[in-house]
Specification:
Elements lengths: L3 H43 L8 H17 L4
Length: about 80
């Protein structure tokens, strides 16, 4: 028979895995998205583009990765 302490520990682990962890992941995603949106809005309003996301670098990396996969298919 399990002790009361072991039962509470198991319930705590279940709560962390199925409630707290997804909440933290969702909140982190919202925080990153809102940071990007407000950085773009701030750059649009002030005219400074120093802290905005640089999409051309990401586009170039994605293009190179796709070209490399077409040139050198995996065996």
């Amino acid at each position: 028979m399990m002790s009361l302490k072991a039962i509470f520990f198991s319930l705590g682990c279940i709560i962390v895995w199925f409630v707290l962890l997804p909440v933290l992941v969702v909140c982190g995603g919202i925080a990153l998205f809102s940071y990007a949106v407000f950085a773009e809005l701030g750059a649009l309003l002030t005219g400074e583009h120093g802290k905005t996301l640089e999409t051309s670098a990401a586009r170039e990396i994605a293009r190179r990765m796709c070209l490399d996969k077409r040139r050198f298919p995996r065996a």
